[in-house]
Specification:
The chain has 160 residues and is of the alpha+beta class. It has a domain of 91 residues: Immunoglobulin-like (Sandwich). Helices cover 18% and strands 31% of the residues. A hairpin with a 3-residue loop joins β2 and β3. The longest helix has 14 residues. The radius of gyration is 17 Å and the shape is globular. The chain starts with a helix and ends with a strand.
Length: 160
């Protein structure tokens, strides 16, 4: 919203810095935390909610970072469709890049991953990628920091 209002990318960089992110969109000035809730009489139900960002610019920046710095694998040996997995200590971002001239739908099955959760509702999801575009498929986070985690994502093409 800041960039749309002011047209100044510097204000976006400043906002991200204040949120704890560096220029590579790595969270380096903040720490993940855990929340413990204890009650005497009440039953409490907590539901984690994703941070919803409607900014196209931030999504493009995340995709670009994953494409430039992540590990790339081709989907179904297609030259125009690839999966980029960018891994940090606390997060793995999986981006699908579509260089073709038509929309594709890709299934990202991360159900064999261990000790992690996704911003998606399931570790097994489908993403639709417009032509000449990239889309974030999963932001995977470690569930229990004291236990090792493993990310295993199997992409497959879905015919439209």
């Amino acid at each position: 919203m800041e960039v749309q209002e002011s047209g100044d990318i510097g204000s976006l960089n400043q906002t991200l810095k204040l949120m704890g992110y560096n220029r590579d969109l790595q969270l380096d000035q903040a720490a993940p935390f855990s929340l413990s809730v204890y009650t005497v009489r009440s039953i409490v139900s907590l539901t984690p909610r994703p941070v919803v960002v409607d900014s196209e610019l931030i999504n493009k920046a995340i995709c670009r970072l994953a494409v430039e710095k992540g590990m790339a694998i081709k989907v179904k040996n297609l030259n125009d469709l690839s999966l980029h997995q960018h891994q940090l200590n606390h997060r793995v971002t999986i981006v699908v890049q579509n260089k073709s001239h038509s929309t594709v739908k890709v299934r990202l099955d991360c159900s064999k991953s261990e000790n992690c959760t996704s911003h998606q509702h399931s570790l097994d999801c489908e993403v639709e990628v417009p032509p000449k575009n990239s889309v974030v498929g999963h932001h995977l986070l470690q569930l229990i920091p004291s236990i090792p985690w493993k990310v295993d994502c199997v992409p497959s093409l879905i015919l439209l």
